[in-house]
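Hello forum,

I keep getting stuck at the same step: I have a sequence, I want structure tokens, and every attempt I make locally crashes halfway through. Rather than fight my setup again tonight, could one of you with a working pipeline run this one for me? It's a single chain of 390 residues.
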Amino acid sequence: MPHLMNTYARLPIAFTHGQGCRLFDEQGKPYLDALAGIAVNTLGHNHPRLVKAIADQAARLIHASNIYRVAEAEAASDKIAALAKMDEVFFCNSGCEANEAAIKLARLYGHQQGIDNPAIIVMEQAFHGRTLATLSATGNRKVQAGFEPLVPGFVRVPFDDLAAIEQVAANNAHVVAVLFEPIQGEGGINIAHRDFMRGLHDICRRKNWLFMVDEVQCGIGRTGVWFAHQHAGIVPDVMTLAKGLGSGVPIGACLAAGRAAGVFKPGNHGSTFGGNPLACAAALATLDVIEVDGLMARAELLGDAIRGGLRAALAGVAGIVDVRGDGLMIGIELDRPCGELVTRALEAGLLINVTAERVVRLLPPLVMSDAEGAELVATLAACIRKFLGA
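Reply #2:
Ran it on my machine without issues. Output:
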């Protein structure tokens, strides 16, 4: 038995290599990857431009230290800030680290405003990570159980509910920020209405709160724009990124703009590995391929085709609650727990995920072809129909 700590309920399969949207197991069996490492492998597997960028950078310099200038981090920060229309970027290694940075930034901002016990509004069904502060911000009791006492300073409201936030605004003088996901991934592909995002943005302006978006799963072109909040035509004060930013190389980022810019000073926050040359080279290559190859438009078109195909294939099937999503972030909600579909799809050569117990989650690489999208629809629809007895 391997000596890995038992923190994952792993499926009994290991992959040896990948190509495009296919992964291959130890017996050589191919699998269509409709999960992309949970929204990580933006460019699929073994993308030639990404591989070259990583190899070239590894041959030059992998790591020095943030006590020196890092040219690759400077270049990556300039690129990401320009895409987001934001001012500053802090690099780290994961989504939870990016959200930890956002939480710290919001608290420091609050103290600078003279608020001794700053609070952050967060949402039900949210997921922001598994570190102590981010699991405290997360709206999932199963993630939190056994790790009490939780970190205080969070006020929880229903997702996509502007009236609930207005009520908090009228009654809680300690609030300094709101943190939410434009699309809740772990929560079940729950999509915030654009009017909600615009209304929340207005409240934050009125109350001098920081408007903070967690784009760890829904960002980096997945919904047809660089960042999902851009559908609402707004710019946040703070944004967090990770997952797809490095196409498999660990990297996270916390961006700041406006009132949030300049809050952190030397010594307030840091990361040993954050912004290392290798990770930043992967990020720059990822962003370049998305831009040059038109992968955002591709995500929008293919996402529409997959959702349309699934709706048609599952029309009239008892047990289907909803097929929803934005771009290549797709959920199929059933009326019953359906975790068994993961192993059924695996047997059929398809990699998927089930979240929130009843939602099949699809997060394909942005390089998926039309033919692979059609194969995904046909294979998954057959698995779901059989599972539901249709």
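The longest strand covers residues 320-326. If your local run keeps crashing, start a new thread with the error log.
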